[in-house]
Specification:
Blueprint lengths: L15 E2 L13 E2 L2 E2 L4 E2 L3 E7 L10 E6 L5 E6 L8 E7 L4 E9 L4 E4 L5 E4 L4 E7 L2 E9 L15 E3 L5 E5 L11 H4 L6 E5 L12 E5 L6 E4 L5 E5 L11 E6 L4 E2 L5 E2 L3 E2 L16 E5 L3 E6 L11 E6 L8 E6 L8 E2 L3 E8 L2 E8 L9 E2 L2 E2 L1 E2 L13 E6 L5 E5 L4 E7 L10 E3 L1
Parallel strand pairs: 17-21, 30-37
Antiparallel strand pairs: 1-9, 2-3, 4-33, 5-36, 6-7, 7-8, 8-9, 10-11, 11-12, 12-13, 14-15, 15-16, 16-17, 18-19, 19-20, 20-24, 22-23, 25-26, 26-27, 27-32, 28-31, 29-30, 34-35, 35-36
């Protein structure tokens, strides 16, 4: 399986400074644990600092994920570049000096970076997963560990998310080629070649099986995955793109071997989308819970640290959705199995622009075709909508817990890396809101 990367350009470019406002109105006299505080309200005792801003001198275009380099002040940033193939790059950035190097270019739609149990860095491209070590600020010992992942120019969901489970197996998300599956092709869509999770079994000595096992099917786009120490594996589903702001809801699924999770036949909890079907399919697994419609969960992590007291024993999720309920970070209280606590009812907040005011309204979960129980989330970032002259709308993608317990966050649309840490929360006292 070892195969040295031939198509990627590895090089250190000129140093770049990343001081910039990233369309945030930052008061540099106010800091969040060492970084300029951005005007995003968070739960008490926490704040958000700007680590990497949108600057002409630091040319990240669409950052998708970030990890801290252990025992240093440096981070690694995966920049997808664009939705065109081979425009991605990898950067080393020193958070103290605010200087950065590009160390790899021409990556193919890269999305995720993780640190493995071997302390090597793993990067997922649309067609493969590779790993490397750092020697200074240079890549060494780079090799492909998973190759030949499905990809074509027509793929609607080409990005590959992945994680290591508690046995070091590699779980890789294979997105669906289409939104709802073309008419007459349901059999093909639920075969496991797409809309599935693949498992590459760990063998030994940093090697995985060459052929994957289809772990689960009927998962349209598994951009958020998390493995709990209890061995619970959960997935957050990016559901079908209905035009309605009210449907369908997103899902939280407990992944079981051989399970079928509904796409494209069913959405929500057992709601049949394809009228020719009498049920949701063989081995159908109902969601553990639902999340509000169109929030687009792109990452989730179990918080292990002690720094952020309100987040202890929680599951944190980034909502990237562009509609009225997304663009924020939320968290759930969890039980010993890593599962969010459930109630008979749950609520969410929707923000809407009305003239020169933002209106916030509370809504009870009311999905088609199903009832609770539901997991009630809490908002870590509060009202992260656009305010002209102050901040852009949130576009959170990936989450990474650093050694000190702070959380690093990549925003793609705003071209920023942010950091959630302890401090006085920003309070917006200058804008008018209507809360219902």
């Amino acid at each position: 399986m070892k195969d040295y990367l031939k198509n990627i350009v590895f090089a250190a470019t000129l140093l770049f400074s990343a001081i910039g406002h990233a369309d945030y109105s930052v008061d540099y006299e106010s800091f969040c644990d060492g970084f300029p505080k951005v005007p995003i309200e968070t739960i008490d005792g926490t704040c958000i600092g700007l680590v990497v801003g949108n600057s002409e001198k630091f040319a990240i275009k669409r950052p998708r994920s970030v990890v801290t380099i252990p025992s240093t002040s440096k981070i690694l940033i995966v920049d997808m570049g664009s939705w065109n193939q081979n425009t991605g790059s990898l950067w080393v950035f020193d958070t103290k000096s605010q200087k950065g190097f590009q160390i790899a270019s021409k990556l193919n739609l890269p999305h995720k970076i993780l640190i493995g149990s071997d302390q090597m860095f793993y990067v997922g491209e649309a067609h493969q997963i590779f790993r490397f070590q750092l020697e200074g600020d240079q890549i060494k010992d780079h090799e492909v560990v998973i190759s030949d992942l499905p990809l074509s120019k027509q793929y609607l969901h080409p990005l590959k998310n992945f994680l290591f489970d508690q046995e070091d197996n590699l779980i890789v998300s294979i997105g669906s080629r289409s939104d709802r599956c073309e008419a007459g092709k349901v059999t093909d869509c639920i075969s496991g070649r797409e809309a599935a999770l693949w498992k590459y079994e760990y063998i030994e000595n940093g090697q995985w099986s060459s052929e994957p096992e289809v772990l689960a099917k009927g998962l349209r786009n598994s951009m958020a995955l998390a493995s709990h120490r209890s061995r619970t594996l959960i997935q957050a589903e990016n559901s079908t793109d209905h035009k309605s702001v009210d449907e369908p809801y997103e899902e939280i699924n407990i992944i079981e071997k051989g399970g079928f999770y509904g796409w494209p036949i069913c959405t929500n909890n057992n709601f049949i989308e394809i009228s020719d079907n009498k049920n949701c399919g063989e081995n159908y697994q109902q969601p553990y819970s639902l999340m509000p419609p169109h929030v687009a969960p792109l990452d989730m992590i179990y918080y292990q640290g002690e720094l952020l007291k309100p987040l202890q024993n929680s599951l944190i999720v980034s909502w990237h959705g562009y509609k009225a309920i997304g663009h924020r970070i939320i968290f759930f209280n969890i039980n010993d199995q890593g599962l969010p606590e459930r109630n008979s009812k749950a609520y969410f907040w929707r923000d809407n622009l009305s003239a020169d005011q933002y209106e916030f309204t509370q809504h009870e979960f009311a999905p088609r075709g199903s009832t609770g129980p539901y997991a009630q989330h809490k908002e870590l970032t509060i009202r992260w909508h656009q305010i002209n002259g102050l901040r852009p709308e949130g576009s959170p993608v990936s989450l990474h817990e650093a050694e000190d317990g702070s959380i690093y966050l990549a925003e793609d649309k705003n071209k920023t890396i942010l950091r959630i840490s302890v401090g006085e929360s920003y309070k917006d006292l200058q804008n008018t809101y209507i809360i219902k």
